[in-house]
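Running this now, will post back.
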Amino acid sequence: MEKRVDKLLQWFDLRSEMEGYDIIHENIEKGIVFRGTNLWVLMFAIVVASVGLNMNSTAVIIGAMLISPLMGPINGMGYSLATYDFQLLRRSLKNFSFAVGVSLLTSALYFLLTPINEAHSELLARTSPTIYDVIIALFGGLAGIVAMSSRLKGNVIPGVAIATALMPPICTAGYGLATLQFDFFFGALYLFTINTVFIAFAALIVCQFLKFPIRSIVDPARKRHVNRVTSAVIVFTLVPSIIFGINLVKNEEFSQRADSFIGEVTLLGGNYLQNRQVHPATRTVELLYSGYGLSDSIREEIIEKALFHRLDTSRLMISQGYDASMVQENVRKYQSESERLSAQLAATTFNLRKSEGRVDSIRNIPLFGEKILSEIKPLFPQIAGCSYAETYLFSAVNDSTLRSGMVPMVVFTLPRNGLRPADRSRIEEWLKNRLGNEQVKTVFEEVRN
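Update: finished.
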């Protein structure tokens, strides 16, 4: 049984594949330096990551994390604490602080110059760290330092750089600095601090587990002091992330309960949910309905369902959009307006047709002479022609001019001495009866043969 356990433990043995301690020390020393190539690569990576955040491109951000050299001094801090190499710790802290300052200035300068300053999802995701970010940083750092200590490094280091995401938060902090949005700045800087502290802590754990040799002579009192300071830094970094993580879990739970509740109140009594807003941070739900109107019974039903899903009804806001009464009132208003306009149109059409009739009658007045001629010709064949018109009769009375109504006037054309005076009188009487007007004026115009 003991042999089986020993054989099983051999599968998890790290020392059999370990690099030499001096080689590991040399590699870590090289990784903490930020001058020349490493410095330029860092600045280029910062610009690439800032562009990725600016354009909300995940692929570009991953590329920037792959080329970032920020992991070096962080592993150096963890390694130096594990081996009590205080000179290496000072150099790691100095180079790391310089790298962070350059990164902040580079990203802030980019966001000052870029015309696009909108905060996309990739930026916003770097401002709310939680306990889950601690877990990612810790286990990513463990993978990184184990790979660095092994002769079989493979492609673990680039993967750790992507998983722990050191570049995006420092670029987001630069964005907050450039736009003076300090909630972005401090939130992103805290996420960067979490990644830094727990990657270094992971390096410290692995180095002590693998029994890396202590590089300096240190008295027990100083050793205890270093351990206390390290523990305090870890605790102070960890506690806020736990609080944020608890809030994140509560917010997710509230969002799920709110979604279930909203799914049950989408359509109620002829009312449909037009818009909804869920605010997990304030635990509020806003509902906007349209339809036939929210009665008291419908509102009570909504509140009962909210209580069933354990939602605070004092933070439930129910609003009514366009209801049926408003729609019907508008329909009635538009119908009455339409009827009024239709009546006006009918009256206008009638008047127009009446006017057209008058115009037609006026146009037909001259043709009435033809009809009179056809009627009187059989009685008095000597009449050669007839014309008809309607005109006004003006009279001068006491230096004033008076106008009568319309007077018909008929002109007969006949040869000289073609009618006797008695015939002319009979024709005049006939016209008065025919036209129904005693004011008709008859003119006999004699022409030479």
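Residues 52 and 60 are 5 Å apart (CA to CA). More later if anyone needs it.
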